[in-house]
Amino acid sequence: MSHIWGAFLRGINLGKRQMKMADLRACLEAAGFTDVKTVLASGNVRLSAQGGEAEVKTTLETTIANQFGFRVGVVLRSESELRAMLKDHPFGTLDPKADVARHVLMFAEALPQGIDLADRPGETEILRIDQRDIYIAAYRQPNGRYTEHVEEVLKPLYAKLDKGVLDTMRNWNTIEKIV
Known about the structure:
Structural class: alpha+beta
Strand order of the largest sheet: 2-3-1-4
Order of helices and strands: EHEEHEHEEEHEH
Strand content: 25-35%
Number of helices: 5
Helix content: 25-40%
Radius of gyration: 17 Å
């Protein structure tokens, strides 16, 4: 039985790691994935596939490496996980007039229990930490950037995680589009 997945590719279309979304779609369809739709040019794919998360992830990563000549980490979320994220997100607590970008940092593996990250009010606020997702509000700074201080806020988390941890951050609008 096929399941719908959101696949979020880490670190593509940076430097020499270029990938046209039409080529990605054709590559995945040739590998047997169905209903393949790409969202934006940053490696967001909605697709149907047989098998569980580990199997789909491995197939995606191997297929992409074979086609494009470089390895890409893939963070997967099932359709039901994505729908639960949409239904229960914490962004409703934000001031609707605030100039803020909504982001979700998604991890391939579960995060350690008891993570505590200090906000930088008016700059970067951690709205909620779930098992594999961190919801972040990033406020527009005087230089025009929103994510200016996200790395600083997340530093204590990365100090606790293994070096090879697979994560990828997406604008919340992308999550809304992929579902």
